[in-house]
Specification:
The chain is an alpha/beta fold and about 270 residues long. The chain is about 45% helix and about 20% strand. The chain contains 11 helices and 7 strands. A 7-stranded mixed β-sheet has the order 3-2-1-4-5-7-6, sandwiched between helices. The two termini are about 30 Å apart.
């Protein structure tokens, strides 16, 4: 599927990031801030992943599709704790290679598939999955409607989709909006609400849970922990990149503490 220059840059940025996620200091930061050690790039904590599993009602022999899987968090964790089969999809091969190795190490009870695939063009037959998850993925993709429609085709009639997403808070001034866009994911802005996007794609919203407060606390925790690991981060990334990384994180924390971003957890089922 053709991608714009910006979209390709996003893919390459994530691809480069996955080359670092298994470094000791990166895993230590992830463990201390999110409770996971998969090399995750979303803001999903272990507690949130457990909640997602419950909302999806995962069970052994269910088939889970995890979109934007990266290095396997939380898709592999959901499969390990529930016993379900899982298909992991993403575009950067570097992340999926890490996930495939971790799937073997975890000795999953179910089957694990990996596929380099665009979320808008999924390589699966219709009605293939009982559950779909994606964590902070749609805010990094331009064509959200196409992804939601592809998910709708892939889900079985009684299946569920649960996903987290970061969005621009409503009612912002022009200055606040600029702050939100500058400090948010690459495609955070939407013309329609996610509820409207879901309806257009053939979904019905079962629940929408505001998890902004937990999100801000996680970002705050990451900033504090990164400062604790300042020396090993500098050794891994170099002086300039380490300083730039910390500055970006502090700017994003300030924006989120100011209330310009919202993070929500959606639960959806196929509309009749």
């Amino acid at each position: 599927m053709p991608r714009t220059t910006k979209e390709q840059e996003v893919v390459e940025t994530f691809g480069q990031h996955y080359k670092l996620v298994l470094a000791d200091v990166m895993l230590a930061i992830e463990r201390d801030s999110c409770g996971s050690d998969y090399g995750g790039t979303s803001w999903t904590t272990k507690a949130e992943a457990d909640r997602i599993s419950q909302l999806l009602e995962l069970a052994p022999r269910d088939r889970l599709l995890d979109i934007g899987s990266g290095a396997g968090w939380p898709g592999l964790y959901l499969a390990r704790t529930s016993g379900c089969d899982v298909a992991l999809t993403d575009l950067p091969l570097s992340g999926l290679q890490i996930a495939a190795k971790r799937a073997v190490e975890d000795q999953l009870a179910g089957v694990c598939w990996t596929a380099v695939a665009d979320g808008a063009v999924l390589p699966f037959r219709d009605n293939s999955f009982d559950a779909i998850s994606h964590s902070d993925v749609l805010c990094c993709l331009a064509d959200k409607s196409a992804v939601l429609k592809a998910c709708r085709s892939a889900i079985r009639p009684k299946g569920r989709m649960v996903f987290s997403v970061i969005s621009v808070a409503p009612g912002l001034s022009e200055v606040e909006l600029e702050t939100a866009l500058t400090n948010g994911p690459p495609y955070i802005e939407t013309d329609l609400t996610y509820a409207a996007l879901l309806e257009q794609a053939g979904w019905q919203v079962v629940d929408c849970i505001d998890i902004t407060e937990d999100f801000v606390e996680t970002v705050r925790r990451v900033v504090d922990i990164q400062e604790t690991y300042e020396t090993p981060l500098r050794e891994l990334l170099g002086e300039a990149e380490s300083a730039a990384r910390m500055a970006r994180m502090k700017d994003r924390l300030a924006a989120r503490e100011a209330g310009v971003h919202r993070r929500e957890l959606y639960v959806a089922m196929p509309a009749p």
